[in-house]
Specification:
Layout: H1 32-43, H2 48-55, H3 59-69, H4 79-90, H5 96-100, H6 122-132, H7 138-154, H8 157-170, H9 175-189, H10 200-203
Helix pairs in contact: 1-2, 3-4, 6-7, 6-8, 8-9
């Protein structure tokens, strides 16, 4: 015969203490009243920890908006000096509301404009190099010197070799022969140290040019 289980008496049993409730932080955008409170506490000389605790906001949020209350030229102020600097302004009837709506000036963008041979893109540079190979005279030689210097400086001699080979192919030269002649031509006319690895031009996504055919 099975003996029925008796309920365990709970009378007089100690209760575990309830865990402390964490304060609920405000969520959403900072209200106008909160901004007023930030300014009031900073003017009173409260430190950053005290302002953060009183506001219930995260420290990062408080730092962000206190920084925006400063003039534009002060917004790089270190966090350790933030409240001190803002409090100094607030003591002189400083209009922090006007400061908050001021946006920093747009960044200065410097455009580098190159002229002459350095201003040519790779396609034009190679096209001119091919044309100069057919020319003679002092002026052509002077321009060729500058074009060759730019070609080798940009490391695009391989693209010139490919262009030369395509022209030879369009004239009916067999592929193996065209490859050999194009490499020899670049070594003679442009760069004696050229390795002949012109196929890198394909890897660089070089487009076909109608002018080579």
């Amino acid at each position: 015969m099975t003996t029925p289980l008796r309920p365990v008496p709970t009378h007089g049993a100690p209760r575990l203490p309830e865990p402390p409730q964490k304060p609920v932080r405000p969520t959403g955008s900072v209200s106008a009243a909160e901004f007023e409170r930030f300014a009031e506490l900073a003017k009173e000389g409260k430190d950053l920890d005290a302002i953060t605790k009183a506001s219930g906001r995260s420290r990062a949020t408080v730092v962000k908006y206190l920084t925006r209350m400063l003039p534009l030229n002060e917004r790089a102020c270190p966090e350790a000096l933030l409240v001190e600097r803002l409090g100094g302004y607030l003591s002189d009837d400083y209009d922090w509301r006007a400061a908050m709506v001021q946006a920093p000036p747009p960044p200065v963008v410097t455009h580098v404009h190159r002229e002459g041979v350095p201003g040519l893109d790779d396609n034009d540079l190679v096209t001119i190099a091919l044309a100069l190979a057919e020319q003679s005279g002092a002026r052509a030689r002077d321009l060729a010197v500058r074009v060759v210097a730019e070609l080798t400086g940009r490391n695009v001699t391989d693209l010139l070799c490919r262009a030369r080979e395509r022209r030879l192919l369009s004239e009916g030269m067999p592929p193996n022969r065209a490859d050999e002649v194009a490499r020899a031509w670049v070594q003679e006319k442009i760069d004696p140290t050229f390795s002949g690895d012109w196929r890198r031009g394909y890897e660089r996504g070089y487009d076909d040019w109608e002018g080579w055919q």
